[in-house]
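The instructor's notes for this session suggest beginning with a concrete chain rather than abstract definitions. Hand out the sequence below and ask the class to guess, before any prediction is shown, which regions might be ordered.
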Amino acid sequence: MSERHDALLAEFITFSPSAINVEHFMLYICQRLHEEMARYNWIAFYLVDKIESRMLVLGPNIGSLTTPHMHCGFDEGLCGAAARSLETVVVDNLAHDARVLMDSVITKSEIVAPILAGQEFVGEIDINSYFTGTFSGEDRVFVEACADLVGKYLEMRKLHSDVSPQLPSKKVDDVG
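After discussion, reveal the predicted structure:
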């Protein structure tokens, strides 16, 4: 990865403990990627729908894409392909991939990396670019690392929420 990638990952790691919740953490990642990575024109997170488990719902996102897909089934588009395979999907030229659900004619390339919390698929990060061939091998490793950070954040929050109710509670009278 490049120095810029490393610096951003370090920033995300430093920020994560102060994030109010996962949505706040994801929005921070979106904002920083949009500010720092010139060819990352639209950055979004899609999360598994809590009601319809084979559906992705648009979460935090930022950029200039005016008509993003609000929902995406596991059998639709590049997001669906990443959800089914649990592998990162990189398309250098969207005009040559039949799986693409076109959001905008100006979007030329895309990367979608799955997010796992433990072994559970919970969502993905989707980045669109207005340039063909935007996502190099370094970009792929970087975007996968961003997805991994969000997965680890969710694992830690789940671990703490699972443990917290089992901790013995102290009454005010017990302290002292």
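Then share the key points. The chain has one domain: 3-161. The longest strand covers residues 120-129.
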